[in-house]
Specification:
Elements (H helix, E strand, L loop, with lengths): L6 H21 L3 H35 L3
Helix pairs in contact: 1-2
C-alpha cells in the first residue's frame, strides 16, 4: 500500500503547478494575469487533491464498517 499523501504534499504539488503555470504565462509576456492564474491554479489543485483524499478516506471507513 502506498503511504498517505499529507496536506503538506498536496500544498507542494499545488505550489509547483502554480509556479509552472505562472512562469509559462510570464514567458509569453502576460505577467499580471499569469501570476493571478498561477495562484488560483495552485489553490484549485490543492482543493481538488484535498477533496479527493477526503472522499477516499470516507469510502475506506465505510468499507471497514461494512456499509456499502
Amino acid at each position: 500500500m502506498l503511504p498517505a499523501v499529507t496536506r503538506t504534499h498536496m500544498a507542494l504539488i499545488g505550489a509547483v503547478f502554480g509556479a509552472i503555470l505562472a512562469i509559462s504565462g510570464v514567458l509569453r509576456g502576460n505577467a499580471a494575469p499569469a501570476l493571478v492564474g498561477g495562484a488560483l491554479g495552485a489553490v484549485l489543485v490543492f482543493l481538488v487533491l484535498q477533496r479527493a483524499h477526503d472522499h477516499n478516506e470516507a469510502v475506506r471507513r465505510r468499507r471497514e464498517r461494512g456499509d456499502r
